[in-house]
Each structure stands twice: as C-alpha cells, then as structure tokens.
Input
Amino acid sequence: MTITRRAVGIGLVATLLQALMLIAFAWPAVNLAPRDLPIAVAGPQATQVGLQLQQRNPDAFELTTLADADAARTALADREIYGAIVTGGGAPQVLVASAASPAVAQQLTALAQQLSGAATVPVQDVIAADTDDPRGAGFGAMVLPLVMSGIAAGILLTLVIPTLGARLAGLATFGIVGGLLSTLVYHTWLSILPGSYLTLATVAALASFAVAATIVGLAATIGRAGIGLGALLMLLIGNPFSAATSAPELLPQPWGTLGQLLPPGAAATLMRSIAYFDGAGASLPLTVLLTWAIAGVALLGVGALRTRPTEVPEPVPA
Output
C-alpha cells in the first residue's frame, strides 16, 4: 500500500468516526422524552390524574400512588421518584427534585400546567440543584473532561510506560491526584456540587481510574486496537448516554440503561446521590465503577502475563 492510499484510508476512517460521533452526541439530545419515568401521584384525585397521564402517553411514566405530599417528599429524598403531582385543595401541586434532573423538573412542571389548564401551578423544589448551577449545565459539562483525561492518561501509560508495576503506579497517581484536583475545580472553585470535598474527590478519583484502567487493560490484552476500543466505548457510548444533563429515563432505550453501566453515567449518578441525597441510590453506580476499575487492572495483569518472556532452562551438563 502506498503512502497516498494509506493517507486516503485514514481520512475515510476519520470521516466515519466523525459521523458516528455526531450521531452519538446529537441523536440522544433530540430524542429526550419520558420513558417509564418514575413519578408519583398523591391526594384525593390521584387516581384520576394517573388515568389522565396514562391516556396521554401510556409508556411515558412509571406511576406510584402515594397518600400525601409528605410521602412524596420522602420518596424524592430516597431517589425512588423524580417528582410528584399532589392533588387536593385547588390546582395540583408539583413536587420536584431538580438536583436529580433539572430537565425532568421542567418537564413535570409543564405537564402539570397542561393537566390543570392553568398558566402556572404551585411548584416546590424539594431537593434543589446547587444555586451556582441551577440548570445543571456545569454538571453536564463536567463529565466530558473526566472521560477525556482518563482516555489520555490510559493512552500515555500504554505507549510510554512498559512495565506492569509502573503502569499501576501511574494509574493510581492519576486517579488520586486527578480526583483531588478536579474536585477542587468543580466543588471548591465553581461550586457545581455541594457536599463533602473528600467524598466527591473519591468518586472523581474512582471514575478517572476506571476509565484510564480500562484503556490500559484493553491495550495490554489485545494490543493497540484496545486503545481505540476503549476510547470509543467511553467517549462514543459512555459520554453521550451518561444522562448527566438529563436522566436515564429520558434517553432512548436501551441506551439510557446501558449508559448507567459505563463509568461516565455511573459517575454522574453517584455524584448526584452523594452530593444531594445522602447516598440514596448510590449502591449500583458505585458497584459499576468498582467493577470497571477491577476489570481494567485484571486485564492489565493478563496482558502482562501473556507478554512475559519465557525462561529457557539451562542445559543439563552431560
């Protein structure tokens, strides 16, 4: 193959990658809609409101009927629902938790207005997003740098560092220092998230380590193709389907669910649970991050064993 043909081939591959990235990032954004979104209805007209919601869109909501507003607030704090419509005493009241998803909070408010026919409805934000980032724009923008830096760290460690022990040391350094520094930026300086600095730094460190370890582990096991596979997995699927700017139940399925099983989505959900909900709903995303981190290290070990030179036994003297 001549150099020109190789260059043309690389250009075509890059063009295909560009198209795939445009689809991956733009398609979810223009297809946001409730899909089995967990919400509650409460109060004396709860059954009637539930029937109205099912008639409007049978697949949009996963409805739970609760006794009153207090029960709905408890369910919101436990991350069992995204919002509630409470009936009784005039126009329905909407309870939301914008900390879980500002996008869902806006949609539920608009939905209640349509159901009541009123220009405005009473809305109570039970667990509000940080006042410095009320729409979640900063939080959503925070995920991509964590993913990109993890990919970059994994590539550099693969290409520059040859030994298993040194790569593990590099992964640990990147995870710990990266977690502390990134949290210093988004927590202390920009105030995107409230809560304990050290706890959030631990989450950021684990997420960064999981992404980088996946790249290093795949490359050690299947060669440089593992770098591309890991990068596409984290960047092309993990980031756009992380639901950091929306909610998993707003994304097309099964992509919304798949996104929560990858480090970017798990990290976003875990940070929300830690920052706003006292750890409610944290077990699954924490398990996902730990699984990816351990799997990356295991793959790195497998690759090191495969490439270890075989000792040739010395000949036995005659």
User: Anything to note?
Assistant: The chain has eleven helices and five strands. Residues 3-29 form the longest helix (27 residues). The chain has a mean pLDDT of 90. Strands lie at 37-42, 61-66, 83-86, 93-96, 123-125.
